[in-house]
Every structure is written in structure tokens, then in C-alpha cells.
Amino acid sequence: MKRSAPMEANSPGKLLPSIVTLYEMGILSRSRIVVIAMVGTLVVVFEGFGIALLLPLLDFIQENGDVEALKSKSSVWHTIVSAYALIGVPLSLAALCVTMFVLILLRQIMDYIFLLLRTRTRQDIGRRISSSLFRLLFESTAPHIQSMGVGSFTYLFATQTIAVTTLLNSFSKLWTLVLTFLVYAMVIVYSAPFISLLAFAVMGFAIASVSRYVRAAGTASRKLVAAGEAWTKFITSRYNGWRLIKVSDALDYEMESVGHHTDNIYRLSVGLARLRGRMELVVAPFMVFFILAGLYISVENFSVSISVITLFVVVVMRLVPVARGLAGLRQTVSTQRANLDRVMLALREAEAAREIDDGVKIFDGIFKKISLDKVTYRYPGGKIPALEGVTTDILAGRLTAIMGPSGAGKSTLIDLLPRLILPTSGNIYIDNEPIESFTLASLRRQIAFVPQDPLIFNGTVSENVRYLYRDAKQDKIENACKIAFADAFIRKLPEGYDTVLGEDGIGLSGGQRQRLALARAYLAQPSILILDEPTSALDYESEHEVQKALEILARKHGLTVVVIAHRLSTVRNADRLVVLVDGCLSESGSPKELSHSDSWFARMLSLDAGSHHESKADASQVSRQDAPK
To answer: According to the model, what pLDDT value does residue 434 have?
Structure first.
């Protein structure tokens, strides 16, 4: 998919297309937008009336409470007197003070409600974005998921979605800042027109003067986002390779790379903070200086009352943080926009790469065979097919082993069975029905997959085993573990089936992890069981236990077992072998049939036998050398 160009971040208004997209996706609701706008408006209205009441209060004090004099001075006083008469309260200094206090109190109450509303909205948006992104990613095609990489995936959820919630929350601030500016503007324009025009001109100039800092911050932010993602990829890969680093004594070499990444993030972060600081350094002092100069000119050359001057100073002092907030908001938008662009791009790409499910039939199990008919698959961007013209059968209720050298297309073949990928050409049938005629959900419910490194999460043994069958009773869990030869070692654990295994099953051996995964797969009662090199990293005893479990699952319980295997010992008792070489079907048949032919499997048997013979000869030679003379 063609990557869309990043949108410019020079204005909060540029975010509106993204807001519309989030609204259309159901992440933002119209009712929530309306409520936030209404509560924010009430905050500003109460504050505006509270501050505006300062002028009548000062005028009332200056005229010693002479209402008639005040009414002759300004038509506004007619409205004020009528308002108090309407509610039956005599106009007095106490009444004005109480009114002002009530308005400010209401403003604080609404501000409190506004704070809670914004916090809940921010958290809800973060939850919805993360949930939507997670679902869309895992509903997308396998090549799309693989193209992302674990580092980018982690950074996207751990950092960028959180940054997006901060950015979207700034819209509520923008609404209140703009309204506050307008309300205060009306107040000071009414009280002091000349000074107001000067103040607004200076304020506009001050905000415009920080534009270059905003643009620079946007550039620095995009670099910082890229640096953060690179750092996440780096530490993820190094954690996965911690054994290699320790055994190879490569820590000093790796520390150079750590220094490179962290120094780059440090430099970019400090640079971004410097840009923010310069903006603060420019806006507030610049505005205050010129506004006070305008005030001085007005007092010296125009007849301005002390009440107007007082109100003007109060309003200007409130407008300075408003102007600073607007300028800061521009910078927030600029600095966080790179994260929003990345999240929105991930959402769009995942949506575009969603798996196609045209199936209408319900798959309720395999009874005869899976047939591959001239199946070819080429990965996106691949120069040569990973599989080419493969025609073979996988028999129901049998143990079929897929073998071949590295890069032969074994993993590609088993990815085709649950439709993680679709053939570029050719067809796959299950009991003579095209595989694409079944719904994805029903097909995958009947398939269990055990990877080479099984997923073991931080939970009890029982919770891990029932991962695919959440309502399973304890007796069924224990029965599945017995069939997978896992019950014996589980009962030796400190708390038995209630033992918490810890993150990634730390403390379990490779064989124990595989047997837990087999128990989990069997408990789900699938029709097809797929295993990816289940014994490649196991010792002899663990391998033997896993082999026995696989044979029992296939021959006694009727599962169709498909296993990728490298070890010959793993496939000696298989019912059928399918050998791939360079993406093509090299041979197929039973181990006995292939061992007596001029086949790849026979050559591997010969090499394995030679290796064992040499090992025995070497052991015998050592024994003779060590024998007493």
C-alpha cells in the first residue's frame, strides 16, 4: 500500500480531517464532542461575567453607591438595576460582591467538571484507539503484520497512541482558549477601545513571531518520534538476543549502540525543550511590555478612569496566559502531530489490509483429506515464489510431517492451511470443498497451532492451558495435560495447577513449555493440529515425550496432525512425509517408502547414520586412549 504523505502541522485546524476520521470510526462520539463544548463554554461564560462585573463593582465604589449617578453615566447600569429588581434583591455593594463570588464559584465548579470530563475523554480515546488499532492489526493479513516488526508494534502502542490522546485533548483546550479570548476581547473593547486595539495588535504579532519556533518544533518532533521508534526496535531485538550478547562478551560493543541511540534522543529532547522555552521567553514579556506601554500612553493622553484601568489590567493579565496557551497549543500540535500521523497511517493501512472472508460454509472438521492442487505462493515483493506448483495430500486422522532444507517453503505451506495467507495461484481443498468457501472463524476454530516457542503468559498453569477454551472445567484441563504428558511435571510444581508461571513461563524447560502448549491445543478440541518444529530445541527425553503425545493425538484421538520437523527422530513414526526443496514438492510418502528410494529423506537418513557411527567411533577411540596401560 502506498504510504500517504504526512500532513502539515502548522495549525490546529489541520487536525480536523483526523478528528473526522476518528469520529467515523466510532472512537469519538458526537454527544461527547457536544458535551465538552457546552461545559467549556459555561466555564468561559461564568468567568467572563465574573470578571466583567469588576467594572460595575469599582464604579459603584467610586460613586459611593449613587445609583442615579451611575445610571446617568452609562446605559449598562439601567440593565444592572433592572436585573436586580427582577430577582427582588436591592442593588448594593454586598449584592454585587455576592454576585461576583457566585459567578466565580460556578466557574470553578464547571472547571472541575470540565477537568474530569476531559480526563475521562482522553483516557477513553486512548482506550478506543488502542483497542481499534489492536483489532485492526490482528484482523489484517499476515504479510502486513509481519512487515510492521516487533519494535514498531511496541512503540506504536506504548508511546504513540498515548501521545495522540494528549493531542486530541488539546482541542478542548483550544475551544476554551478561543472563547476566553473572545469574551475578554469584548470586555476590554467595551471598556477601553484604543488600548484594546493596541493590545490585540501586539498579541497577534507576538503569536506570529513564534511561528518559526513552531515549525522547528514540528521538525524536531518528527525526528524524535523516529529516534524513539528506532530505540524501541533496538532494545527489543537486544532483549531477544541477551544470551548471545552475554556469551559473546559483546556488552561493550552493544553499549556503543546504546550510547548512539540515547545520545540522539537526549539531543533531540533538549533541542525541543529549548524551542519551547524560547517561545515562552518571547511571548509573555513581549506582550506585557507593549501593553503596559500602551496603558501608559492612554493614561497620559486620554481620560481613563481608575475603574477602567483596573479592569483593563486584570483582563490583560488573564489574556497573557491565554495568548501563551494558544501559542503553546500550536507547538503541542506541531510536536505531537508526527505521532498522530503514524497512528492514523497504521489504522488506515490495517483497514486496507483487512483479511478477506468470503466464506459462507461452516467448517466442522476434516474427514478425508486436505488437498493442495498446483499451489504457488509469492510473498509481496518477492523475486521468486516461496512455493511453486505444489500438489500433495494431507490425510485426515494421520500424522503428516513437512520436511526440507531451510528456506524450502515449509512455514509458508502451513500458513496456507488456516488461510493466514492465500495462494497466488492454485487451490486448496478440504474434503473436496475449496478452503475459501469456509468462514474464517469456523475454519480457525477447528485448527490449533503450536509454535516452536509457545506463548506462556503470566498466569497459573490452568489459566494457560484453558487459553483457547475459557470455560473448561478443571478435570478436562487435567485430562488434556495427561494426554500431553504434562501432568507429571505440573504436579511437582510448588502449587501444582495453581502455580503462577511468570512472564513467558520463566523457569519452565523447552519440553515443559511444548507439552503445556500441546495440552492447550488438545483442550480446544480441534480437528487439525499444526506444529512448527516442536522438538528442535528439546533434549532426548523431552522430544520422546512430545513424540508420544503427537502419536496419541493422531492415532487415538483422531486429530489431523501436521508438523514441521528438522529432526529425523521426530518423523520416524509419521504416517506420511512431505518433502519440499526450493519451494517445490520433492517427494512424499511414508518414512519407510522414502527410506528405500533415492530421495532427499534417504540421503538425510544416510548422513544421520554416518554421524552416529562417527560419534560412536570417536567415543570408542577415547575409551581406548583412556584405558590403563
So the answer is: 94
Q: Which three cell numbers stand for residue 133?
A: 488499532
Measure Cα distances from 130 to 19, 133, 156, 204, 497 in Å.
16, 5, 9, 38, 33
Q: Are strands 433-434 and 447-450 parallel, antiparallel or unpaired?
A: unpaired
Long-range interactions of 499-504: CB distance < 8 A, separation 24+ = 499/460, 499/461, 500/458, 500/459, 500/460, 501/456, 501/457, 501/458, 501/459, 501/460, 501/461, 501/464, 502/458, 503/457, 503/458, 504/456, 504/457
State the DSSP H helix or E strand holding residue 268, giving kind and residue range, or none if neither.
helix 251-301
C-alpha pair distances (Å), 489 with each of 266, 460, 481, 485, 549: 49, 14, 10, 8, 15
% of residues, the chain, pLDDT over 90: 15
Beta strands in 498-569 (DSSP E): 528-532, 560-564
- Assign 360 to helix, strand or coil: coil
The CA distance from 23 to 447, in Å, is: 37
Distance CA 34, CA 40 (A): 10
How far from the centroid of its chain's Cα atoms is residue 128's Cα? 11
- Kindly report the backbone phi and psi dihedral angles of residue 356, in degrees, each rounded to the nearest multiple of 5, phi listed first: -90, 125
Q: Please state, in angstroms and rounded to a whole number, the distance separating the CA atoms of residues 189 and 183.
A: 10
State the DSSP code for 158.
I
Residue 206 has pLDDT above 90, yes or no: no
pLDDT level of residue 286 (50, 70, 90 thresholds): low
Main-chain phi, psi angles of 527, to 5 degrees: -95, -30
- Mean pLDDT, residues 280-291: 67
- Binned at pLDDT 50, 70 and 90, residue 418 comes out as very high
Residues 6+ apart with CB under 8 A from 497: 460, 461, 462, 474, 477, 478, 490
User: Backbone phi, then psi, for 233, in 5-degree steps?
Assistant: -60, -40
User: Which contiguous run of DSSP H or E holds residue 544?
Assistant: helix 540-555
Q: In the beta sheet, which residues pair with residue 531?
A: 450, 563
* pTM of structure: 0.69
- What does 160-206 look like in DSSP terms, one character per residue? IHHHHHHHHHHHHHHHHHHHHHHHHHHHHHHH-HHHHHHHHHHHHHH
Average pLDDT over residues 587-602: 83
Give the rounded percent of residues in the chain with a pLDDT score beyond 70: 78
Backbone angles phi, psi at 149, to 5 degrees: 85, 150
Question: In the numeric block, which cell numbers belong to residue 506?
Answer: 520463566
